[in-house]
Amino acid sequence: MINRDYEEFVIVKDSEIHGKGIFIAADISEGEKILSIKGEVIDGYECERREEEEQNVYIFWSDDNTYIDTAMTDKIKYINHDCDFNCDIVEDENNGLMIIAYRNIKAGEELTIDYGYEEIYEECGCNSCINN
Ligand SMILES: [Zn+2]
Questions:
Q1: Is 53 helix (H, G, I), strand (E, B) or coil?
Q2: 123 C-alpha to center of ligand 1: Å?
Q3: Burial code of 105-127, b = ≥16 C-beta within 10 A, e = fewer?
C-alpha cells in the first residue's frame, strides 16, 4: 500500500521547539509513510555506552535488543519531541523503522514525535506544554 515516501520533502530548519527540526514541504495524510529511519544498527550494550560516553541522543529503540543510531544521518536525527506530536514510529516490512503521519499534516509544519521517555516530560519545552 505504501510504496513511496516523502523524504525529499523533508527539510532541516531552525525550530521553535529546540535547535534544529525537520519540516515537511508537502501535505501528508494520516498513515502515510514520510521516511525510513536509517542508521547504524547497534545492540543495547552499545546503545548504553554511546548514550553515556558520547552523550549520543540520536538513538531509536527498534525491538528487544536492537537500536538504530541516527547520529550520522542528515535529517531524521533532528526530529523534535512534542507532547502534541504529529508523527509516529512504526515497523516497516523489512523489520526496520519508519516515520508515518499520525494525523493529517500540512505543508510547512514541523514533524514531531513522542520521545516516550520519562525525563522529557519533566521540563518539556514543546509548544503544547509552554502554551498550557
Ligand atoms: Zn510537552
A1: helix
A2: 8
A3: beeeebbbbbbeeeeeeeebebe
| pTM exceeds cut of 0.85 | yes
Q: Which residues surround ligand 1, an ion (CB under 5 A)?
A: 83, 124, 126, 129
Please answer whether residues 106 and 91 qualify as being in contact, where contact means their C-beta atoms are separated by less than 8 angstroms: no
- Rounded to the nearest angstrom, the distance between the alpha carbon of 128 and the centre of ligand 1 is 6
- Burial label, 5 (beta-carbon count in 10 A; 0-12, 13-18, 19+): middle
Distance (Å) from CA 23 to ligand 1 centroid? 18
Q: Which of 73, 69, 51, 52 is nearest to 60 (CA)?
A: 69
Q: Which residues contact 67 (CB under 8 A, 6 or more apart)?
A: 41, 42, 43, 44, 46, 47, 59, 60, 61
CA distance 97 to 113: 13
pLDDT tens readout for residues 76-98: 999 999 999 999 999 988 888 99
